[in-house]
Amino acid sequence: MGDIAQNEASFYSNAEGYWKDVPPTVEGMLGGYGSISSIDINGSKAFLQKFLGEGEGKTGMTCALDCGAGIGRITKRLLLPLFRTVDLVDVTQEFLDKAKNYLGEESKRVGHYFCSGLQDFVPESGRYDVIWIQWVIGHLTDDHLVDFLQRCQKALRPNGLVIIKDNVSYEGVVPDEVDSSVCRDLEIVRSLVRRAGLSIVHEEQQMDFPKEIYQVHTLALR
């Protein structure tokens, strides 16, 4: 990712520009693959429920953070049904404005809407049981991803989890000029997690997605 590190400012500003032109809809959030939303949410719910509950070692259900939340697709269908309070962070203010309507009556259980890129975002220390980071790590440089994961670790409550769910390439780092992002292979993602000082508690591949898109893997970290 050397080239991207050198052109860091444009890497981030180009991505912001891309998302400003994306319609604030589920279809827009999923790049034209709105049809996979239910498969995605059901897979995420099954993954997350392995950890949630009461008792020793279980992850609490008080507060979650949705990173790269967009209009709140994951907040609405995955996080709000499971957690008492959910915070959203996204770089695009228009998406967060739309989220308030999209979430409907349940929006009253949103704690905060933060408009920020994750490279600049500092989550509140000790606030979150789960920090959900889906389809957004490709918008961070390696160094910024490591730094962000370290900040996330500090933001966890006891037995809390950081969850990454994202595309993985078959080999190496594949840049996407259209939305100014990268797709890393799984071993690179794992190495960045280790560099951040977190451990992988569990890992799964999301099944039943269309063949033409990248494999998607979910990693639980703490």
CATH homologous superfamily designation = Vaccinia Virus protein VP39
Separation of the first and last Cα atoms = 25 Å
What characteristic shape results from the CA principal axes? Answer: globular
Please count the helical segments. Answer: 8
Task: List low-confidence stretches.
Answer: none
How would a textbook summarize the main sheet?
7 strands, mixed
Order of helices and strands: HHHHEHEHEEHEEEHEE
Q: Rounded to an integer, what's the Rg over CA atoms?
A: 16 Å
Furnish the topology, listing elements before pairings.
Layout: H1 2-6, H2 8-20, H3 26-29, H4 37-48, E1 63-67, H5 73-79, E2 85-90, H6 93-102, E3 110-115, E4 128-134, H7 142-154, E5 156-168, E6 173-176, E7 181-184, H8 186-195, E8 200-205, E9 215-221
Parallel strand pairs: 1-2, 1-4, 2-3, 4-5
Antiparallel strand pairs: 5-9, 6-7, 8-9
